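Q: What changes when zinc ion is included in the input?
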Amino acid sequence: MGIVKASPEAQLRLLELADLDTELARLDHRRRSLPEIAELEQLSVRAAKARDALVAAETELADLSREQERAERDVDQVRVRIERDQKRLDGGNVSSAKDLESLQSEVVSLKRRQGDLEEIVLELMERMEVATARRDAAAAERDSVGASVDEVTARRDAALAEIAEAAGKASAARSSVTDGVPADVLALYDKIRASAGGVGAAMLRRGRCEGCRESLSMADLNEIRAAAPDEVVRHEECRRILVRTAESGL
Ligand SMILES: [Zn+2]
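A: The predicted holo structure follows.
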């Protein structure tokens, strides 16, 4: 690129432009690093865990409930058989001693079986209590996470709206500032901005480049002193456009 020219006024506009671009970059960084973004990520991990725990507890409860129904049915069947055997014993119609003995021994074994089954029902009830507590805790965690998500989302959206408003103002200001800058200077500025850490132009203040904060060599300063006021000069070291003002120390 050869010598690029712009009036001293247009060059001063580059400083305004650099300030606005710094502000826009700051807003963009803030938008991407809002603490609410990390908070929502953590909450989403918690929500997934609560959901899994809830599904596991509900599945276990359904299994236990089926097991319990089956055990209760078994208990009922045994009870009916005991009652039937007992009726036959009490009815006095079983005359053979052998039949009587076998019937009595059946009642004894059925009662033992009934006891075992009732034990199983009790154990299942205890396990259901534990699973119910686990399900309730998971549901409470899910509700609490949901409330937090709503609260953090509202906070994030408010911050985003505030950032968008500030960015809108800065962008509008940027448009009006660029209106006064020649297109080739603007293109050069944007090119440098893209490669020099987001700052395309800086003030030369007391012999120092405000972009990279280095002092210019005597040779560079002499060269800038010799340049016409409408010549766009650059810092040899950092390549940024250097804008001359009354404070430049030339
Ligand atoms: Zn510099």
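Observations recorded in class: The two ends are 25 Å apart (CA to CA).
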